[in-house]
Amino acid sequence: MQAYSKAFAAVYDKKWAAFSHQVAPFLINFCASTEIGKKNKTVLDVCCGTGHLANHFLEKGYRVIGLDLSEHMLHYANENAREFVKSGQARFVLGDAAEFNLPERFGLVVSTYDSLNHLKDESSLLGCFRSVHAVCDGFFIFDLNTRKGLKRWNNVFVDDSEDVLIITRGIYDGEGDRAITRFTGFVSLADRSYQRFDETVYNTVFELERVKSLLLEAGFGKIYFARIQDLMTPLDKPEEEGRVFIVAGRQGVI
């Protein structure tokens, strides 16, 4: 899986916290409504980035382990959750979502902001699912961009503000199994200088029925697709959505 540069991690921390703020209340409410979520308030955040989602859970009293492949992302995660890290309520570890081992058991495992689209193929996705299943006592919730959703990125977007300039170029023909997004620009640093960044991100198109099959192969039981606003209600036609959340529970959990 891809690890991000120091400059891109700074951009991510400055500009892309909004998605975590949007989805966190729904994820927390879902967890609190389940029996396992009431018993085990330890959460694993796979591809935790700079820790924005983790902070929402930490503020609600959950213990959180964040895992990410980028040392630079983890630097910001540790800074953003400094007091929680100091108290032992939070821990951020370096690791690859495609294959990892942890000693803890989690009531909820999450991975958001279409992070798992960045895995290169179904083999890597299955490796992730098996790693999660090995440490998950309850539910695994993650989101993916669908083929329809990735078509929206076939464009150029410019974000020009005082502390960062981002030019985003998306390339996807709607037919293949890989979309490409290139981020170029400048970000302000603590000493008021600017640093250029140039990051290329690959998004793999995973057919949702294959995703479900891989989750079953990894050992999960109840699996369905939903919108973030209603994680309890399965979607009939998930491929018609731009983004879907996948809810996967271990056998027997409620």
Helices and strands, with pairings:
Layout: H1 6-15, H2 18-33, H3 35-39, E1 42-46, H4 52-59, E2 63-68, H5 71-80, H6 82-87, E3 90-94, E4 106-111, H7 122-135, E5 136-145, H8 147-151, E6 156-160, E7 164-171, E8 178-188, E9 194-204, H9 208-218, E10 220-226, E11 243-250
Parallel strand pairs: 1-2, 1-4, 2-3, 4-5
Antiparallel strand pairs: 5-11, 6-7, 7-8, 8-9, 10-11
Helix pairs in contact: 1-5, 2-4, 7-9
Percent in strands: 25-35%
Helix and strand sequence: HHHEHEHHEEHEHEEEEHEE
Q: Rough shape?
A: globular
Could you say what the CATH architecture of the largest domain is?
3-Layer(aba) Sandwich
Largest sheet: 7 strands, mixed
Strand sequence of the main sheet, in spatial order?
3-2-1-4-5-11-10
Overall residue-averaged pLDDT value: 94
Which structural class is indicated by helix and strand composition?
A: alpha/beta
List the total number of helices. 9
What is the fourth-level CATH superfamily of the largest domain? Vaccinia Virus protein VP39
Rounded radius of gyration (Å): 18 Å
- Which class of the largest domain in CATH terms? Alpha Beta
Number of strands: 11
Here the CATH topology of the largest domain equals: Rossmann fold
Helix fraction, binned, reads: 25-40%
Distance between the termini: 32 Å
**Domains (count):** 2
